[in-house]
Design a protein that fits this description.
Number of strands: 0
Helix content: over 70%
CATH architecture of the largest domain: Alpha Horseshoe
Structural class: mainly alpha
Order of helices and strands: HHHHHHHHHHHHHHHHHHH
Radius of gyration: 25 Å
Largest sheet: none
């Protein structure tokens, strides 16, 4: 728009945006950033307008300009990650969403909500269900009625490593029923959650992951029936390492360490790269008196998860039982280091 002063372009762009005239707003914002490429707010507004319109390629280009100008802008990185997510550039989206969340998005809660949901679904797609499940504790506070949240709950509980758009028609009812039951549990409506899982098991009594998902919900509510559901899952699917692992931990928590030995061995055999499996087996072996074997598994757990506090607690106990005071001291110092890092 030759001859139109920058200040006039800004005024008219903002007026059009506030009036909901997206096309006009884009025209004036584009003219503004063409005249002044350092106008970071112009790039931000363009990014928002393009994301809202589903023009994710244009949004990505505008937001890349923004984050070059404002590299510590958490909302900018998060919105950029959302645009990349919708474009199918999942690895880059995951990196930019994580960066945006780490920098902070409190000034734009809606962008933060959408970004966290997209990040959660990317964790699911990559099979990182532990990280995805942690995000549910935040999402249930800010997006309990979002259809994407319900689908995420179902995918995580059933351990289906897919994005919602990739869920097959045959899987859709299963995922939604599971998601609704899990959402009920997360929002404190346990009677509704139980009814949901009873319906789910009646429809899908032999579907992998259904009994495991119900067990997690029951365990969260400290219900004694959790162990029966875990055992049913392991009976139906003997290759389900997670079911064996949860049986081991459940029996350890109940004070039956010898009962934990067999499922812990199964978990370690089926998933030798899981520190949880080695931790469970090490704890069970230690109580059973097999100290040297317990140490071997606990040292494996520490190698696989060098930042986990519970591993070093168990390792210190095993070293004390083995009469290795210098190793006890090393474990104590590691615990002290981890506690110092967690303090802030």
């Amino acid at each position: 728009m030759p001859g139109v002063p920058f200040e006039e372009l800004v005024r008219r762009a903002d007026e059009a945006s506030e009036a909901g005239q997206a096309v006009e707003a884009v025209r004036f914002y584009r003219a503004g950033v063409a005249l002044n490429p350092l106008w970071d707010d112009g790039w931000w507004r363009l990014g928002q307008l393009f994301v809202d319109a589903g023009c994710h390629g244009e949004a990505r280009d505008a937001l890349r300009r923004l984050v070059r100008l404002q590299p510590t802008a958490g909302p900018g990185w998060t919105l950029l990650g959302l645009a990349e997510y919708h474009l199918g550039d999942f690895d880059q989206a995951k990196a930019d969403l994580s960066r945006g969340m780490a920098l902070g998005v409190s000034s734009t809660p809606e962008v933060g909500r959408q970004g966290l949901l997209a990040q959660t679904l990317l964790h699911v797609r990559g099979g990182d269900f532990a990280s995805a499940a942690k995000n549910l504790n935040i999402l249930v506070q800010v997006a309990p009625d979002d259809p994407g949240f319900v689908v995420a709950c179902g995918l995580i509980a059933l351990r289906i490593g897919k994005l919602p758009k990739d869920v097959t028609e045959a899987e859709r009812e299963l995922v939604l029923l599971t998601g609704r039951a899990v959402r009920a549990a997360l929002t404190g409506r346990m009677d509704e959650a139980r009814r949901g899982f009873d319906e789910l098991i009646a429809k899908y009594p032999r579907r992998r992951g259904v009994h495991l998902a119900y067990a997690f919900v029951l365990s969260r509510a400290s219900a004694t029936e959790a162990l029966a559901q875990l055992r049913r899952e392991a009976e139906l699917f003997p290759d389900n390492a997670e079911a064996h692992l949860e049986i081991a931990f459940e029996t350890l928590e109940r004070g039956d360490p010898r009962e934990a030995l067999e499922p812990a061995r199964a978990a370690a055999r089926l998933d030798p790269d899981s520190f949880w499996s080695h931790l469970a087996l090490g704890r069970a072996l230690l109580v059973a008196g097999a100290v040297e074997e317990a140490l071997s598994h606990l040292e494996n757990a520490a190698r696989l998860a060098p930042e986990r506090r519970d591993v070093y607690l168990a390792l210190a106990q095993a070293c004390a039982r083995a009469g290795r005071p210098s190793d006890v001291e090393r474990a104590r110092l590691k615990l002290q280091e981890l506690d110092t890092r967690r303090e802030p």
